Structures are given as C-alpha cells and as structure tokens.
Amino acid sequence: MSTAPQEYPGATPAQWLEGARPHTWANAFAPVMAGTAAAVFAGEGNALRAVLAGIVAWALIVGVNFANDYSDGIRGTDDDRSGPLRLTGSGLVPPKMVKYAAFGSFAIAGVFGMLLSLLSAWWLVLVGALCIAGAWFYTGGKNPYGYRGLGEVAVFVFFGLVAVLGTEFTQSGAVSLLGIGMACAVGGLSSSVNLANNLRDIPTDAETGKITLAVRLGDRRTRYVWLGLVIAAVVLTLAMSLQHIAILLGLCAVPLLVLAARPVIGGAQGKALIPVLGMTGRGMLLWSVTMLLAALIS
C-alpha cells in the first residue's frame, strides 16, 4: 500500500527570518564588539577585520539556529514547544531545506573566516572549522552534546572565549587580560540567554529525552545559575573598571538585566519566560556597545 508524500505549504520570508531567530543575534555581535573594544584598549583596532568577524559570527549563529531547527525537528523534540516558530517542527518546509539553510550559513561563515585568517593567522581556519563542527553537533549527529547538558558550556566557549578573544587577536595579534575578562562576561551573558531558553523548555525537553543543563538542574537550581551568570558579568565589569574607569559605562546595561531577571526570580513559566531571552540579549548588546565606547574615549 503506497503512502502519499507529505504536503509542505511552504514558509514566507518572514517565517524564514523567524526561523533564523533574530532575537539570538546579539550573541553574535556582542562578542565581536567586546573583542574589538579589547583590541582598542590595547592600542590597536581594525574596522575591516571587525566587520569580517561580525559576518562570521552572525553566519555561525544563523547556521546553528537552522541546524537546531532541523535536528530537533526530525527528532520530534519541537512537536510541542512554547517558543518561536520552528520551520521543521511546524511542517512548513521539507526538513532538507532547513538543513541546506544551515549548511549555506556555515559556508558563508567559512568563506569570510578564511578571508579573516588570511589577514591575521592561517591557523584560525582550524578554529573556524571547530566552531562549525561545534555548531552542527550541538543538536546534530547521533550523540548531540546539547542533549547531555553541555549547551551552555559550548556557548560560553564559542560565543564567549573564542569569539571575543579571536576578534581581539585578529586585530591586535595578542590576547590581553582585559580581553579575557570581557570574554568571560560576554560568555556568561550569552550562556544565560541559552539557559533561559532551556528553562522555558524543561517540561517538553524532559518528556522527549533532551537532557539539557536545565533538565539536569531542575527548575529552581536553573534559576539560581541564571542569576549567578548575570551577576558574574556585573562583578567582572566592576573589576575591569579598576584598570579603565570608563568601563563603568557597562553598568548602563544593569537596568535591562534587572528587567530580564524579574520573570526568572518570579517563577515565570513557559511563554512568560520568552521576554527574558530578548531582554538579556539586549542587555548583553548594550554592555558590549558601552565597552567599545569606553575604549574609544579612554
């Protein structure tokens, strides 16, 4: 008995954009600005290389978002979720189209990453390849590490340490102590965005076998860890200001982080936690903008 092929209604450009999850793009641009700030504080700074790094980071995060959409969708972990639209899970487009979108984004990251490596250090190509592999195997492959509670660790490493310090290195040729502090601050805030997303999805993730860090910790302890990550970024800002007083401008982001913390502290669940992601991302972006401004005026 033959089975009729599945019908896919197709996705509009707006739905494809939603699938790329623009609210996460701050995780790409913030570390590039912070890394550029560190380079400027070191007496260096290169606008062209900063732009190239920004394109690489943006393409990577779009790629990882489409990769997650595809991998989670074919596993069925997106069949019942309270977050933004997922192209695969909703059945709007064939899964392979979402996978192609992910690979296309990774290709863009690869091309601009190679160009940036030619302008700085050839071995950064290897770092870029590792970043792409990390993006795909977060939820892809037979044993995705995102299903083992390592998602936040990966975000801290790739969108914190690697992105910030890599940006600084391509412009100044070195990594500074100040850069490490900024990388840890951005990495913590970026991880808190990911953790808030997984806090929201604890019930559905646990049911489908997606064992994220939030599932491992449970609701209450996940909220404590989220607060710890955000507070650590503020403490690092105060510590770095001992070297450059202008870094205190980063405290301008505190009101946004406080607004983001309210639903977390208040025990919000499901869709009520969605604003936490956007507010934390905007706080991280503002923090990075102020770091760059502080570097320029110091």
UniProtKB/TrEMBL annotation:
Keywords: Cell membrane, Membrane, Menaquinone biosynthesis, Transferase, Transmembrane, Transmembrane helix. The chain crosses the membrane at residues 47-67, 121-138, 150-167, 173-196, 224-240, 246-265, 272-297. GO terms for biological process: menaquinone biosynthetic process; vitamin K biosynthetic process. Its main location: membrane. It is found in: Cell membrane; Membrane. Pathway: Quinol/quinone metabolism; menaquinone biosynthesis; menaquinol from 1,4-dihydroxy-2-naphthoate: step 1/2. It is an enzyme of class 2 (transferase). The keyword Manganese does not apply. It is a multi-pass membrane protein. It catalyses: an all-trans-polyprenyl diphosphate + 1,4-dihydroxy-2-naphthoate + H(+) = a 2-demethylmenaquinol + CO2 + diphosphate. Its EC number is 2.5.1.74. GO terms for cellular component: plasma membrane. One of its GO terms (molecular function) is 1,4-dihydroxy-2-naphthoate polyprenyltransferase activity. It holds the Pfam family UbiA. InterPro entries: MenA, UbiA_prenyltransferase, UbiA_sf, UBIAD1. Belongs to the MenA family. Type 1 subfamily. Conversion of 1,4-dihydroxy-2-naphthoate (DHNA) to demethylmenaquinone (DMK). PANTHER family: 1,4-DIHYDROXY-2-NAPHTHOATE OCTAPRENYLTRANSFERASE, UBIA PRENYLTRANSFERASE DOMAIN-CONTAINING PROTEIN 1. This is 1,4-dihydroxy-2-naphthoate octaprenyltransferase. It comes from Corynebacterium resistens (strain DSM 45100 / JCM 12819 / GTC 2026 / SICGH 158). The lineage of its organism: Bacteria, Bacillati, Actinomycetota, Actinomycetes, Mycobacteriales. The gene is menA.
